[in-house]
């Protein structure tokens, strides 16, 4: 219980920067320093709707949400069974992890097992958070000896190695993935979000999920990246920027519902509420930009949960939400002249 409260305090500090979203609404390519364009988000959707193509390009945008990302796997199981394939995949944080691994050919059964067993989240935080916080003063000793590592409780290197274990050298490069892929991350140096569209898949996933304060920033080239959820938690616009005409988004954030006063007498309840509100605020505009937004009911599942019951709950919620969304998805695809994405 104490670990969960401490975790919420760290995550509350992370999400406090979410207001940057209004200042930097666009994402730039990883090899540039300027946003890809200054167009309003809705303009991108309107442009896609006016295109005439033999077959529309279908995009998948997977949002951030920590342990709730198990719902992404549930959604993908349903869409894959229906034969719906994608021409572009974008992801933020856990969405970048699930999307990147799926794009690299990791079977959904393996991804499901990594969530159900709790291995993925345990590798995300290789040492329990409480222990890491208690040991923090010891970890600062190297600084007294001249070492100046980046700020954060976890490096994230072991997590990256866990994610990429078993992936072939070919698929470890984003350019070689079967489907164009982008991981969204925030560059601390210029305060702008970027799409990482080439280079190491492992480092891209690590960077996109480097929660500020919890994980150390990831250095890629001349940029220093942290979790993209601060500004682009549901990367729909970025999926359209890659070239998608139709975008299916998966928002795994906890649904934002009205609460009674007594809810906020519990320690940590206000921080949790503000995290939920900020994520809801960030994701709302992006959800409206998508052609279809699937939002599994992940209520009650902690962002850093390692519980098998929470993983099972999120997986089932993802499957149910995807099945409920199938009529809308098929109607959209039929409207574009196709019955499925391929």
Write the layout of secondary structure elements.
Elements (H helix, E strand, L loop, with lengths): L1 H14 L12 E2 L11 H10 L7 E5 L7 H12 L6 E5 L1 H10 L4 H9 L2 H6 L4 H6 L1 H4 L1 H4 L12 H8 L16 E7 L4 E5 L4 H8 L9 E3 L2 E5 L8 H7 L3 E5 L18 H21 L2 E3 L13 H28 L7
Parallel strand pairs: 1-5, 2-3, 2-8, 3-4, 8-9
Antiparallel strand pairs: 4-5, 4-7, 6-7
What key attributes describe this structure?
about 350 residues; nine-stranded mixed sheet; 9 strands; disordered N terminus
Kindly describe this structure.
With 342 residues, the chain is of the alpha/beta class. It is built from 14 helices and nine strands. It has helices at 2-15, 41-50, 70-81, 94-103, 108-116, 119-124, 129-134, 136-139, 141-144, 157-164, 201-208, 236-242, 269-289, 308-335, and strands at residues 28-29, 58-62, 88-92, 181-187, 192-196, 218-220, 223-227, 246-250, 292-294. α3 (70-81) links the parallel β2 (58-62) and β3. α1 packs across α13. It starts with a helix and ends in a 7-residue tail after the last helix.
Tell me briefly what this model is.
By secondary structure, this protein is α/β, with parallel strands linked by helices. It contains 14 helices and nine strands. The protein has helices spanning 2-15, 41-50, 70-81, 94-103, 108-116, 119-124, 129-134, 136-139, 141-144, 157-164, 201-208, 236-242, 269-289, 308-335; strands at residues 28-29, 58-62, 88-92, 181-187, 192-196, 218-220, 223-227, 246-250, 292-294.
């Amino acid at each position: 219980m104490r670990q969960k409260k401490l975790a919420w305090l760290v995550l509350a500090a992370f999400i406090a920067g979410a207001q940057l979203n209004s200042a930097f609404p666009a994402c730039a390519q990883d090899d540039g320093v300027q946003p890809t364009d200054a167009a309003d988000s809705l303009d991108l959707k309107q442009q896609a709707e006016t295109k005439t193509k033999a077959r529309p390009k279908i995009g998948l945008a997977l949002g951030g949400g920590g342990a709730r990302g198990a719902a992404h796997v549930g959604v993908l199981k349903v869409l894959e069974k229906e034969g719906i394939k994608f021409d572009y995949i974008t992801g933020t944080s856990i969405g970048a992890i699930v999307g990147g691994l799926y794009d690299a050919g990791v079977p959904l059964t393996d991804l499901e097992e990594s969530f159900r067993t709790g291995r993925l989240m345990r590798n995300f935080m290789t040492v329990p958070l409480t222990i890491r916080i208690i040991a923090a003063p010891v970890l600062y000793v190297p600084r007294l000896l001249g070492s100046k590592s980046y700020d954060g409780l976890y490096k994230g290197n072991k997590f990256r190695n866990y994610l990429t274990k078993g992936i072939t050298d070919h698929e470890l490069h984003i350019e070689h993935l079967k489907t164009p892929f982008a991981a969204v991350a925030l560059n601390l140096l210029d305060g702008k979000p970027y799409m990482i569209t080439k280079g190491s898949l492992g480092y891209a996933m690590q960077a996109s999920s480097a929660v500020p304060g919890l994980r150390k920033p990831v250095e890629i080239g001349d940029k220093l990246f942290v979790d993209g959820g601060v500004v682009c938690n549901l990367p729909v616009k970025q999926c359209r920027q890659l070239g998608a005409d139709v975008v299916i988004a998966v928002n795994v954030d906890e649904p934002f519902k009205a609460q009674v006063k007594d809810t906020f007498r519990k320690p940590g309840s206000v921080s949790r509420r503000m995290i939920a509100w900020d994520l809801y605020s960030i994701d709302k505009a992006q959800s409206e930009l998508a052609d279809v937004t699937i939002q599994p009911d992940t209520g009650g599942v902690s962002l850093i949960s390692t519980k098998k019951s929470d993983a099972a709950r999120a997986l089932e919620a993802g499957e149910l939400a995807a099945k409920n969304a199938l009529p809308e998805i098929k109607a959209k695809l039929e409207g574009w002249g196709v019955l499925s994405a391929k």
